[in-house]
Amino acid sequence: LQARVTAAIARDLERQENHREAVTWWQRHLGVQPDSAHRKDLAVAQIAIGDVDGAVLSYRAWFRRHTTDIEVALWLGKNDLGEGLFSEAREYFEAVLELRPNNLEALHGLAQSAAGEGNDDEALRLFGRILALEKDHIPAALALAEQAIEQGEDIRAVELLKRVLSQNPQHPEARQLAIEALRRQAQRSRGVKAERLWGDRKSTRLNS
Protein backbone atom coordinates (compact mmCIF):
# COMPACT_ATOMS: atom_id res chain seq x y z
CA LEU A 1 0.00 0.00 0.00
CA GLN A 2 2.76 2.45 0.92
CA ALA A 3 4.51 1.84 -2.40
CA ARG A 4 1.31 2.60 -4.34
CA VAL A 5 0.63 5.74 -2.34
CA THR A 6 4.13 7.19 -2.75
CA ALA A 7 4.09 6.42 -6.49
CA ALA A 8 0.68 8.10 -6.86
CA ILE A 9 1.90 11.23 -5.07
CA ALA A 10 5.06 11.35 -7.20
CA ARG A 11 3.04 10.99 -10.42
CA ASP A 12 0.70 13.77 -9.34
CA LEU A 13 3.67 16.04 -8.62
CA GLU A 14 5.09 15.24 -12.07
CA ARG A 15 1.80 16.29 -13.67
CA GLN A 16 2.11 19.56 -11.79
CA GLU A 17 5.72 19.83 -13.07
CA ASN A 18 6.92 19.95 -9.48
CA HIS A 19 9.91 17.78 -10.32
CA ARG A 20 11.93 18.56 -7.21
CA GLU A 21 9.22 17.27 -4.88
CA ALA A 22 8.59 14.39 -7.27
CA VAL A 23 12.22 13.31 -6.85
CA THR A 24 11.71 13.15 -3.08
CA TRP A 25 8.59 11.01 -3.41
CA TRP A 26 10.11 8.71 -6.04
CA GLN A 27 13.01 8.14 -3.66
CA ARG A 28 10.56 7.31 -0.87
CA HIS A 29 8.77 4.95 -3.20
CA LEU A 30 12.02 3.18 -4.09
CA GLY A 31 12.95 2.94 -0.43
CA VAL A 32 9.87 0.77 -0.02
CA GLN A 33 10.11 -1.03 -3.37
CA PRO A 34 13.74 -0.99 -4.63
CA ASP A 35 13.02 -3.06 -7.76
CA SER A 36 10.22 -0.76 -8.93
CA ALA A 37 10.09 0.21 -12.59
CA HIS A 38 9.65 3.79 -11.37
CA ARG A 39 13.41 4.10 -10.95
CA LYS A 40 13.38 5.37 -14.53
CA ASP A 41 10.81 7.99 -13.53
CA LEU A 42 13.17 9.08 -10.78
CA ALA A 43 15.95 9.53 -13.33
CA VAL A 44 13.69 11.59 -15.60
CA ALA A 45 12.72 13.84 -12.69
CA GLN A 46 16.36 14.21 -11.67
CA ILE A 47 17.25 15.31 -15.19
CA ALA A 48 14.38 17.83 -15.09
CA ILE A 49 15.91 19.54 -12.03
CA GLY A 50 19.43 19.40 -13.44
CA ASP A 51 20.69 16.57 -11.25
CA VAL A 52 22.44 14.66 -14.03
CA ASP A 53 24.79 12.86 -11.60
CA GLY A 54 21.78 11.55 -9.71
CA ALA A 55 20.14 10.47 -12.95
CA VAL A 56 23.30 8.58 -13.94
CA LEU A 57 23.22 6.64 -10.67
CA SER A 58 19.50 5.90 -11.08
CA TYR A 59 19.84 4.76 -14.68
CA ARG A 60 22.89 2.63 -13.89
CA ALA A 61 21.02 0.92 -11.07
CA TRP A 62 18.15 0.28 -13.46
CA PHE A 63 20.38 -0.99 -16.25
CA ARG A 64 22.16 -3.46 -13.98
CA ARG A 65 18.83 -5.29 -13.69
CA HIS A 66 17.47 -4.50 -17.17
CA THR A 67 20.37 -4.92 -19.58
CA THR A 68 18.07 -5.02 -22.63
CA ASP A 69 16.76 -1.48 -22.10
CA ILE A 70 18.14 0.16 -25.24
CA GLU A 71 16.87 3.64 -24.42
CA VAL A 72 18.69 3.73 -21.07
CA ALA A 73 21.86 2.18 -22.51
CA LEU A 74 22.00 4.86 -25.20
CA TRP A 75 21.44 7.63 -22.65
CA LEU A 76 24.21 6.30 -20.41
CA GLY A 77 26.56 5.80 -23.35
CA LYS A 78 26.04 9.32 -24.65
CA ASN A 79 26.48 10.77 -21.18
CA ASP A 80 29.77 8.90 -20.65
CA LEU A 81 30.90 9.96 -24.12
CA GLY A 82 30.25 13.58 -23.24
CA GLU A 83 32.27 13.14 -20.06
CA GLY A 84 35.20 11.66 -21.98
CA LEU A 85 34.67 8.22 -20.43
CA PHE A 86 35.21 6.41 -23.71
CA SER A 87 35.72 2.87 -22.38
CA GLU A 88 32.60 3.10 -20.23
CA ALA A 89 30.59 4.52 -23.13
CA ARG A 90 31.78 1.68 -25.37
CA GLU A 91 30.25 -0.91 -23.02
CA TYR A 92 26.79 0.63 -23.28
CA PHE A 93 26.91 1.03 -27.06
CA GLU A 94 28.15 -2.53 -27.49
CA ALA A 95 25.28 -3.73 -25.27
CA VAL A 96 22.83 -2.06 -27.64
CA LEU A 97 24.52 -3.51 -30.72
CA GLU A 98 24.26 -7.02 -29.31
CA LEU A 99 20.50 -6.54 -29.44
CA ARG A 100 20.26 -4.27 -32.49
CA PRO A 101 23.36 -4.69 -34.71
CA ASN A 102 22.33 -1.89 -37.07
CA ASN A 103 21.30 0.71 -34.49
CA LEU A 104 22.74 3.92 -35.95
CA GLU A 105 22.92 5.78 -32.63
CA ALA A 106 24.91 2.97 -31.05
CA LEU A 107 27.20 2.59 -34.07
CA HIS A 108 27.86 6.34 -34.09
CA GLY A 109 28.50 6.32 -30.34
CA LEU A 110 30.85 3.37 -30.65
CA ALA A 111 32.73 5.09 -33.50
CA GLN A 112 33.14 8.20 -31.35
CA SER A 113 34.27 6.06 -28.42
CA ALA A 114 36.86 4.33 -30.59
CA ALA A 115 38.11 7.68 -31.87
CA GLY A 116 38.33 8.96 -28.31
CA GLU A 117 40.39 5.93 -27.35
CA GLY A 118 42.73 6.57 -30.28
CA ASN A 119 41.47 3.59 -32.30
CA ASP A 120 41.18 5.49 -35.57
CA ASP A 121 41.01 2.41 -37.82
CA GLU A 122 38.10 0.99 -35.85
CA ALA A 123 36.34 4.37 -35.84
CA LEU A 124 36.65 4.74 -39.61
CA ARG A 125 35.49 1.18 -40.16
CA LEU A 126 32.41 1.91 -38.06
CA PHE A 127 31.75 5.16 -39.91
CA GLY A 128 31.91 3.22 -43.16
CA ARG A 129 29.39 0.75 -41.79
CA ILE A 130 27.11 3.62 -40.78
CA LEU A 131 27.30 5.17 -44.24
CA ALA A 132 26.43 1.83 -45.81
CA LEU A 133 23.26 1.81 -43.71
CA GLU A 134 22.43 5.50 -44.02
CA LYS A 135 24.03 7.23 -47.01
CA ASP A 136 23.17 10.72 -45.74
CA HIS A 137 24.61 10.31 -42.24
CA ILE A 138 26.48 13.61 -41.82
CA PRO A 139 29.04 12.73 -39.09
CA ALA A 140 30.06 9.55 -40.91
CA ALA A 141 30.38 11.34 -44.25
CA LEU A 142 32.53 14.06 -42.67
CA ALA A 143 34.84 11.57 -40.94
CA LEU A 144 35.35 9.53 -44.12
CA ALA A 145 35.81 12.67 -46.25
CA GLU A 146 38.56 13.87 -43.93
CA GLN A 147 40.26 10.47 -44.20
CA ALA A 148 39.95 10.58 -48.01
CA ILE A 149 41.61 14.01 -48.13
CA GLU A 150 44.49 12.77 -45.97
CA GLN A 151 44.97 9.82 -48.33
CA GLY A 152 44.87 12.01 -51.43
CA GLU A 153 41.48 10.68 -52.57
CA ASP A 154 40.08 14.12 -53.37
CA ILE A 155 37.37 12.95 -55.76
CA ARG A 156 35.94 10.57 -53.16
CA ALA A 157 36.14 13.31 -50.53
CA VAL A 158 34.18 15.73 -52.71
CA GLU A 159 31.50 13.11 -53.38
CA LEU A 160 31.09 12.47 -49.65
CA LEU A 161 30.94 16.17 -48.88
CA LYS A 162 28.27 16.70 -51.52
CA ARG A 163 26.01 14.46 -49.43
CA VAL A 164 26.45 16.76 -46.46
CA LEU A 165 26.12 20.02 -48.39
CA SER A 166 22.99 18.82 -50.18
CA GLN A 167 21.35 18.64 -46.73
CA ASN A 168 23.00 21.72 -45.24
CA PRO A 169 24.67 24.00 -47.80
CA GLN A 170 26.08 26.20 -45.02
CA HIS A 171 27.63 23.38 -42.97
CA PRO A 172 30.92 25.02 -41.88
CA GLU A 173 33.05 21.89 -41.53
CA ALA A 174 31.80 20.41 -44.79
CA ARG A 175 32.47 23.68 -46.65
CA GLN A 176 35.99 23.91 -45.22
CA LEU A 177 36.78 20.31 -46.12
CA ALA A 178 35.32 20.73 -49.60
CA ILE A 179 37.50 23.79 -50.22
CA GLU A 180 40.55 21.83 -49.05
CA ALA A 181 39.69 18.85 -51.25
CA LEU A 182 39.12 21.02 -54.31
CA ARG A 183 42.32 22.96 -53.65
CA ARG A 184 44.36 19.75 -53.47
CA GLN A 185 42.59 18.40 -56.52
CA ALA A 186 43.51 21.56 -58.46
CA GLN A 187 47.13 21.37 -57.27
CA ARG A 188 47.43 17.75 -58.41
CA SER A 189 45.82 18.62 -61.74
CA ARG A 190 48.33 21.43 -62.29
CA GLY A 191 51.14 19.10 -61.28
CA VAL A 192 50.03 16.47 -63.79
CA LYS A 193 49.74 19.07 -66.57
CA ALA A 194 53.20 20.45 -65.77
CA GLU A 195 54.66 16.94 -65.78
CA ARG A 196 53.06 16.20 -69.15
CA LEU A 197 54.28 19.50 -70.56
CA TRP A 198 57.80 18.84 -69.33
CA GLY A 199 57.66 15.37 -70.82
CA ASP A 200 56.51 16.72 -74.18
CA ARG A 201 59.25 19.33 -74.27
CA LYS A 202 61.89 16.80 -73.28
CA SER A 203 60.69 14.45 -76.00
CA THR A 204 60.81 17.26 -78.57
CA ARG A 205 64.39 18.16 -77.68
CA LEU A 206 65.48 14.53 -77.90
CA ASN A 207 63.88 14.12 -81.31
CA SER A 208 65.29 17.35 -82.75
Report on the architecture of this protein.
This protein is mainly α and 208 residues long. 81% of the residues lie in helices and 0% in strands. It has eleven helices and no strands. Helix 1 (2-15) packs antiparallel against helix 2 (19-32), helix 2 runs antiparallel to helix 3 and helix 5 (70-82) runs parallel beside helix 7 (104-116). The chain is elongated. The model has no long low-confidence stretch (mean pLDDT 90).
Largest sheet: none
Per DSSP, the total helix count is: 11
Helix content: over 70%
Structural class: mainly alpha
Apparent shape: elongated
Average per-residue pLDDT, rounded, comes to 90
- Helix and strand pattern: HHHHHHHHHHH
Beta fraction: under 5%
Distance between the termini: 107 Å
Number of strands: 0
Uncertain segments are: none
Q: Supply Rg.
A: 26 Å
Structure in a nutshell:
The protein is an all-alpha fold. It has 11 helices and no strands. It starts with a helix and ends with a helix.
SSE layout and pairing:
Layout: H1 2-15, H2 19-32, H3 39-48, H4 52-65, H5 70-82, H6 86-99, H7 104-116, H8 120-133, H9 138-150, H10 154-167, H11 172-207
Index terms:
elongated; 208 residues; mainly alpha; 11 helices
